[in-house]
Automatic annotation (TrEMBL):
<dbReference type="GO" id="GO:0008173">
    <property type="term" value="F:RNA methyltransferase activity"/>
</dbReference>
<dbReference type="InterPro" id="IPR015947">
    <property type="entry name" value="PUA-like_sf"/>
</dbReference>
<feature type="binding site">
    <location>
        <begin position="304"/>
        <end position="310"/>
    </location>
    <ligand>
        <name>S-adenosyl-L-methionine</name>
    </ligand>
</feature>
<dbReference type="InterPro" id="IPR001678">
    <property type="entry name" value="MeTrfase_RsmB-F_NOP2_dom"/>
</dbReference>
<keyword id="KW-0694">RNA-binding</keyword>
<dbReference type="GO" id="GO:0003723">
    <property type="term" value="F:RNA binding"/>
</dbReference>
<keyword id="KW-0808">Transferase</keyword>
<dbReference type="Pfam" id="PF01189">
    <property type="entry name" value="Methyltr_RsmB-F"/>
</dbReference>
<keyword id="KW-0489">Methyltransferase</keyword>
<feature type="binding site">
    <location>
        <position position="328"/>
    </location>
    <ligand>
        <name>S-adenosyl-L-methionine</name>
    </ligand>
</feature>
<dbReference type="InterPro" id="IPR023267">
    <property type="entry name" value="RCMT"/>
</dbReference>
<feature type="binding site">
    <location>
        <position position="355"/>
    </location>
    <ligand>
        <name>S-adenosyl-L-methionine</name>
    </ligand>
</feature>
<feature type="binding site">
    <location>
        <position position="457"/>
    </location>
    <ligand>
        <name>S-adenosyl-L-methionine</name>
    </ligand>
</feature>
<feature type="domain" description="SAM-dependent MTase RsmB/NOP-type">
    <location>
        <begin position="211"/>
        <end position="588"/>
    </location>
</feature>
<dbReference type="InterPro" id="IPR018314">
    <property type="entry name" value="RsmB/NOL1/NOP2-like_CS"/>
</dbReference>
<dbReference type="GO" id="GO:0001510">
    <property type="term" value="P:RNA methylation"/>
</dbReference>
<dbReference type="InterPro" id="IPR049560">
    <property type="entry name" value="MeTrfase_RsmB-F_NOP2_cat"/>
</dbReference>
Amino acid sequence: MKKARDLHLLLKTIRRSSTTTTPKMDPSDRYSFSPILRWDPEVENYFIKAYGADHFSIISKALTRPSSYSCVRVNTLKSTSDAVIEKLLEIIKEKGFDGDCHGKEGSGPNENVGSPLEESLKNGPIVKCQIPGLEYVLFVKGTGPHMIDYGYVPGAPPKEVIVGRKCAEAVLRGAQVFVPGVMACSAHVEKGDTVAVSAAIEQRNPNGGWAFGITRGTVLQGLQTDPYYFERNGLYIGQGTATMSRAGLFRASEGIAVDMNNRVFRLPSFYDVLEGEIFLQNLPSIVTAHALDPQKGERILDMCAAPGGKTTAIAILMKDEGELVALDRSHNKVQDIQKLAAEMSLTCITTYKLDVLKAIRQRNEADDININQSSNSLRFHEEKASSSTAEGFNLDKTCEDNVSNAIENGGAYVSKADIRKAKRRMRNGSGRNQCVGGRVENSKGFYPDSFDRVLLDAPCSALGLRPRLFTGEVTIDSLKKHATYQRRMFDQAVKLVRPGGVIVYSTCTINPGENEALVRYALDTYKFLSLASQNPRIGGPGLVGSFESANGRTEEWLRPGEEEFVQRFDPSSSLDTIGFFIAKFSVGSKDA
């Protein structure tokens, strides 16, 4: 617990040291960043009853801002924390990130420049996590919010580019402004011009839906007659240099539109940096992999694995020994998992395209198992023979011998046509579908009780992700639909895990209906499940109690004594993480 408290203090220090208190240079509140999340009234009432009005107001504000640091997970199978720190410091130095906002003269100094952090941070902007077992996790300090002088003069507004809300959220996380994200632009913007960048947030339309209400390519005059002029007050996310003219912005189909060199929030960008050695991942996601406590040699299932962050974290904790099955119902997302696993040189991960609601396989499909085993064996031997080609092996004989061995070892009959195809692939090299990340296997599911541990990082309302500038589309009904879907997925997880095994359930939402209510459902429905302690434990306790809706329906949450077994990460806490929830279940005898 002392280490957990130390981590809270450390991250609180980072957060405090990254926040500037520079007085506003612009007398107008318009050119600032002070967004307000506007919730559906029913949803807001629900969350107020869960958290209290004051606390929920603080949470809402925290959600509009990024964390004050980036969290980097080191691939300990390929590198060390010290080696990565050295490389990242060099990259930060090369990119010129020195802690200030790089703004125009007169934009106001950043008090962090040159000021030392607490003892643990005084040697630089990167620090190791001090929680036992998490020393391979690094925190990279960012800065903000910065007060930016946009050059506002009454009657002469600055040149401006409006970007879509999702683009704005990406910019707040450190991205550039890319062409597809640009919605509108001032007249006479030329390449090299300095432009203010503001965000367009969806507005309610007459049909009851949500839309930007701005036609792409709209010319901005800087007048109150511009689209959503007043709605953009307090939604300026920084300043940058146009990389093309106004005409070019709306003719090009890709590329950087605005080079953001003066941001409200600055975080070092590590995109495409040290691939295979590091992975940018939120702290609660890393803790989730540890809560599962994977062991070498086990068979583990990651039910909703894309994009692969938790999957690869689990594989590394297993020392890449055992079998880790990663599922997703999207072909492209399965390819993303494969690509990440290949970058990290992880071989214990097997990926399948599968809807987890159809994950249970009936016993009468055993023949399909043999066919799949033979097919997998053949592919393995094809790859092995292909790698031996350079050494002068007889490909025809190698392929035929390997197929013969596969059949003798219990595989199904492989036709001569399949053998001929294998020979062609060995001679000609892998085609597009055989390249890493190019081939996706379908699965008909898995037998009940066939996994030692199951992770269900469930698709959710994602109301813990930050920064977030819009929540208007979230309704009570949409939250209920998420909860219903999650229960169906959890039912599959219970069937797939063996007695004596473990299930870890996690979400990236602040919604108790998808978190504590799911735990209540699990414990009440499956008497052989019990909450298990988690290590490390750095999140806060769960919510105890219930919520009664206007129609008299009661949503039960945790009961006294259960709250300390789960981990709830509050985006407004000193940890400064995304909103997240983790519950761990021990599986007893299913016959009881």
